[in-house]
Specification:
Length: 82
């Protein structure tokens, strides 16, 4: 009673329709491949990754040296007050 009535789905023909070709295919021009640039692109990506990793390493080292300097300064100032 509360179920919706669905319309009947029409069946599609089972035989494939093949379009007929009316013109001869045009000859294609030779296409230049992008493979000569693949090595250069890979080199640029690798250099970028290496430089980014080096920059991150320098930043982490600078932060750790700054923290060590603050801790040593705190220890030396408290030792001289005693």
């Amino acid at each position: 009673m509360f179920r919706p009535k669905l319309p009947n789905i029409p069946t599609l023909p089972t035989t494939p329709v093949v379009p007929q070709q009316t013109q001869a295919p045009m000859p294609t021009a030779p296409v230049r491949s992008l493979t000569p640039y693949a090595g250069a692109v890979a080199a640029v990506v690798v250099v970028g990754v290496v430089l980014t990793a080096l920059l991150a390493a320098v930043a982490v080292t600078a932060v750790s040296v700054a923290i060590a300097a603050v801790v040593l300064r705190s220890l030396l100032s408290s030792a001289s007050r005693r």
